[in-house]
């Protein structure tokens, strides 16, 4: 959720893998490698809707999401770039910090499933804004460690951290965590 893009995004303001770090289009490299060497594996991409410290996001949040400068200038252009440039089979969106109407999720998803270059093949999860999880999406992610324990009528996944307390590395994590 830091806003660093692993592709040369036109809206990342130099905070991307082409401009700093590896100086490569990592998403493009990965897409090419998967498609050339393992065509039976579907290529998917993770995208975080929000960025913890982006001033545009923080400004929108401060205004209780009654404006969406961050979404219109950063999030949606990035998602369109990803789809048009890399044509993923799966988009795993991560963002439930703000209502779906703030994220323009329905507008993006309508374009994705009706007019995008992957409209006939793409699938998405259900993290497109507050109140969407376990209700909408090609498959449900619901919540961390979700396990309904009975057969579900809709496809779902168990999205689980290895550490009960964090999605990131914790130096002091115990085996029991």
From TrEMBL:
This is alpha-L-fucosidase. InterPro entries: FUC_metazoa-typ (IPR016286), GH (IPR017853), Glyco_hydro_29 (IPR000933), Glyco_hydro_29_N (IPR057739). Belongs to the glycosyl hydrolase 29 family. GO terms for cellular component: lysosome. It is an enzyme of class 3 (hydrolase). It holds the Pfam family Alpha_L_fucos. Keywords: Glycosidase, Hydrolase, Signal. Alpha-L-fucosidase is responsible for hydrolyzing the alpha-1,6-linked fucose joined to the reducing-end N-acetylglucosamine of the carbohydrate moieties of glycoproteins. It comes from Hirondellea gigas. Its EC number is 3.2.1.51. The lineage of its organism: Eukaryota, Metazoa, Ecdysozoa, Arthropoda, Crustacea. GO terms for molecular function: alpha-L-fucosidase activity. It comes from the Eukaryota. Residues 1-173 form the Glycoside hydrolase family 29 N-terminal domain. One of its GO terms (biological process) is fucose metabolic process.
